[in-house]
Amino acid sequence: MSSLKIIGFVCFLLFSQISYAETSADSTQKEMQFGTSALITNNGISIVPIFTLGKPAAIINFTVGRRFTFEPEFRVSLEGKPWSFIYWFRYKVAKTAKYSLNIGAHPSIVFRNISVMINGNNEEIQRAQRFVAGEISQNYRFNKHVNLGFYYLVSPGSIENKTKPTNLITLRSGYNNIELGKEFVAGINSQLIYLFSNGEEGSYVNATITLAHKKSPVTLSYFYNKPINSSITGGKEPVWNVGATYAFNKMFKTK
Questions:
Q1: Total tally of structural domains belonging to the chain
Q2: Which of 90, 119, 123, 238 is the most buried (most CB within 10 A)?
Q3: Is residue 19, in this structure, part of any structural domain at all?
Q4: pLDDT tens digit string along 159-201?
Q5: Facing residues of 37 across strands?
Q6: Contact 77/90 with Cβ under 8 angstroms?
Q7: Distance between CA atoms of 51 and 45, rounded to whole angstroms?
Q8: What's the CA gap between 95 and 101, in Å, rounded?
Q9: What's the chain look like in SS3?
Q10: d(C-alpha 112, C-alpha 219), whole Å
Q11: Which CATH number fits the domain that encloses residue 166?
């Protein structure tokens, strides 16, 4: 599938929703959001395999804004070494009780370990690479349990290495707020993915199972990603991780 066909399809999908977005009731006009979350996991995984860390890691997110939000994400290994820093800027095109349409873009810095010779010794150092990307995200919530969504991300590749573009298309579904008793709730979210990255392509399916308590800010999760058919370097084997996420989110009313 060529990049132009993918981009054309996504643009059609986006603009087909604009009339809906303009007539939707906007609940973001008088609310200011501030949120943060911190994830600790045994295995730092990225949907784009070349960005996978493959070691225990921490991912810290912040969200601040109203309809337009700034959402930086800092990923580090538990050894204290940087993994990637992503600076998301997102805009809520439409938001109702059931439907949302968002667009976003980011610059990012990805740190990769490379081996070099220093004074005759083979040593490992970190090299920073810069990337930019854009995204479109849609989600429809049928009820408090079931949701279905679409996600598209495009990146022209590394600024330094001039790698080939990345196109990521994802169909998402979820069944959440499953009551388990004693105020415990669970959720199951899955994704069907097509990825074209640096001249290679692959398709994947993954699932995330979550467990939380209504009075606790901590959520436990299990993630499993399996290739369906992939020629992508580093993305030909199943990967999984477990994690614990602490989240804080607050909406402030403004006049």
A1: 1
A2: 90
A3: no
A4: 666 677 899 999 999 999 999 999 999 999 999 999 998 889 9
A5: 61, 247
A6: no
A7: 8
A8: 7
A9: CCHHHHHHHHHHHHHCCHHHHHHCCCCCCCEEEEEEEEEEECCCCCCCHHHCCCCCEEEEEEEEECCEEEEEEEEEECCCCEEEEEEEEEEEEEECCCEEEEEEEEEEEEEEEEEEEECCEEEEEEEEEEEEEEEEEEEEECCCCEEEEEEEEEECCCCCCCCCCEEEEEEEEEEEEEEEECCEEEEEEEEEEEEEECCEEEEEEEEEEEEEECCCCEEEEEEEEEEEEECCCCCCCCEEEEEEEEEEEEEEECC
A10: 29
A11: 2.40.160.40
Residues of the chain with pLDDT below 70 are 1-30, 159-162, 250-255
Query: Is the pTM higher than 0.85?
Result: no
User: What is the reported pLDDT for 160?
Assistant: 67
The confidence score (pLDDT) of residue 89 equals: 97
Distance, in Å, from the CA atom of 140 to the CA atom of 85, rounded to the nearest integer, reads 29
> Rounded CA gap, 59 and 74, in Å?
6
Check residue 93 and give its pLDDT. 95
Contacts by 117-121 with C-beta closer than 8 Å and gap 24+?
none
In a domain, 91, yes or no: yes
- What lies within 8 Å, CB to CB, of 56 at 6+ separation is 40, 41, 42, 43, 44, 77, 78
Could you count the other beta carbons within 10 Å of the beta carbon of residue 39? 19
Q: How many CB atoms lie within 10 A of CB 124?
A: 8
Residue 28 resides in a domain? no
Domain span at residue 111 reads: 3-14+35-253
